[in-house]
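Hi, here's the filled form for the chain we discussed.

Project: internal
Contact: R.S.
Residues: 622
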Amino acid sequence: MPPPLGRSFGPRGFLTEEEKKNQPKVTGALIRRILSYLKPYWFQFLLVFLAILLSSVVGLLPSIITGRIVDEALVGRNMRLLVKLLLYAFGTLAASQIIGVLESYINAWISQKIIFDMKNQMYDHLQHMPHAFFTSEKQGDIITRMNTDISGVSSVISGTLSSIVSNLAVVVTTLIALFSMSWRLALVGIVVIPLLILPTRSVGRTRWKILTDSQAKNDEMNQLVNETLSVSGSLLVKLFTREEREYERFVTVNGEVTELQLKEQRSGKWFRVIMGMFTQLGPLLIYFAGGYFIIAKADTALTVGTITATVALVNRLYRPIESLLNIHVDFTRSLALFTRIFDYFDLPNPIKSPENGETPDVSDADVQYDHVAFSYDPEKPLLTDINFTVPGGRMFAIVGASGCGKSTVVNLIPRLYDVTGGAVRIGGVDVRDFDLSYLRRQIGVVTQETYLFNGTIRENLLYANENATQADIEHACAIANLHDFIAAQPDGYDTVVGNRGLKLSGGEKQRLSIARVILKDPRILILDEATSALDSISENAIQDALEVLMEGRTSIVIAHRLSTILKADRILVVRDGVIAEEGTHEELLELGGTYRDLYETQFRKVLEYEAGHEKHEEHTQA
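And the returned structure, exactly as it came back:
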C-alpha cells in the first residue's frame, strides 16, 4: 500500500497572539489593490491554474492503475498486462512531475516579476520621501519593508495562492474518483481522515508553543552574540573587563536554548510514534470495511483492487485537507504582509515638486527668511519668527546654543523640511514654488558628518557631477587641499574609502566632501558646522578650501569656531525661535547679550586653546 504523504505541522498552522491582535481588516479595496499587482500576469496565472488542474487529474491515475494491477494483472496472472500497467503508472508519475516543474517555473517567474515591480515602486517612493521620514523611521524597518516584506510576496504567490488552488483541485478530483469507484468505501475513507488530522493539529499546537519559546531564546542569544562580538561591542567588553560576565550570560542563555530544543525534539519523536499508529489505523479500517463488503456480498462490484486504490486515494487527501484547514492562517498572514507594504506606500509626502515649478537664475540672488516659523511637533514650536536676508554673494554666520534650531534654519532652504509659517525665498521666489530638483541643484551643503559611499574616491566625487572630467576632479581636489594626498595613494583616485569613508581620517573625509561640492558648482552654499570636530591643522587646510569655495557664492555658515565666524559679513544669533541679535563680531560683543555669553563660554576658550597650541608647536620646533 502506498505510504501516506507527509503532513505539515507547527508554526504555519497557528496565529501568534500578536497576529490575532493585529489581524488586518478584509475590505474590497484591499483585495482589489492586491489583485492589481497580479493583473499584468493574468495569462501566466491562467497557465498555472491549468497546470494545477491537469496535474491533479494525472495524479489520480497511479492510484487507479494500482487497482487495475491488482484486479487484472495479478489476479488474472497476466505478465504482459502487468508490465504494461506498470509502464502506464510510471508514465503518469513522470508526467505529473514534469507538469509540477513547469508550474513551479511559471509560479517562480510570476513571483519574481511582482517582487521586481514592487521593489522598484517602493525604492522610488522612499527616495522621494521627505528628510523627516528618515530621521524618525528606524533604518532596520525601512530595510525590512524593502527586502523581507516584499520578498515575502513570493511565498504568497507561489505558496498560499497556488496552494489553495492546488489543494482544492486535488480534493475535488480525488473525491470524484473515490465516489465513482465505491461510494461506500469513499464514505469510510472520509470518516478516517479526521482521525489523522485532529491529533496532528493538537500535537502541532503544543510544538508550536515550544518552537515559539525556542525562537525567542535564539533571538536573545543572537542579540548577545551580535552585541558582544561586534567591533564596538568587543572593545567595550575588553575595556571594562567583562569577558567572564558575558561568558556566564552566554552559557545561561545557551543552556535555555538547548533545553527547549531537546524538549521540541522529544515531543517530535512522540508525535511521530502516535501519528504512525493513526496512519496505519486508517488503511486498516478501509481494508476491514472493504473486506466486510466483499465477504458479506454487500457490494458485489467491489474488488481487492478497488480497496487498494481507495487506500491510496484517501492518503492523497490528508495533506490538502489539512492545508485547507489552515487557509485562514495563510490568508491572514498574506493580508498582513501586503498591509505592511501598503502602509509604507501610503505614507504621505508633503514635500513635492509643484507642477511647472519655477527655475529662475539664482546667481547672486538674495536668500530671504520672511517671518519663518517651524516645528517638528505642533506642541513644541522650534522657530517662531525668523526674519533676515542674506544679500547675494555675501556670507552670513549663524550661532546659538545647542538645540536652538540653527541646522533647521538652513535645512529649510533646500526644502529638507517645509516651513509651517512665513516663507523662505531665493531671488524673491518662494522655495516651495521652485522645481524641487532644480532648487537642490543650486545648493551645496557641507556638513560636520560627511557621508561617503563604500566605493572609490573617484566614484564619491562623481556623485556630485557624473560628467566631470579627470581634470575637473583634480582641480576640485586641489582647491580642497586633497590632491596631493590622493596622488600619494597606490591606487590614486581609485582608492577605496571603505564603509562610510572609514579608511580616511576626519579631515580627509571633510576635504573630499568639499571637493564634491566644488564639482557640483552650486550658487548657494550651506556650511553646517563643517570644521567643528577637526583638529587645528585639519581645520586650517579645510578653512583655506572653504574660502575658495565660498568666493562669489551666497553662503550661510553654522560654526562653533570663532575663526570661521570672524570672516562672516554678518553674524545672526538664534535664541528662543527668533534672530535675537544681528551684527558684526565687534557690534555683538558691545551689545553684551547672547553672543557675548557664547563668546565667553565657547569661542574665547577655543581661541585661547588654539593660541596656546600654536605657541607649544613653535616652542617644540625651536
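Let me know if anything looks off before we file it.
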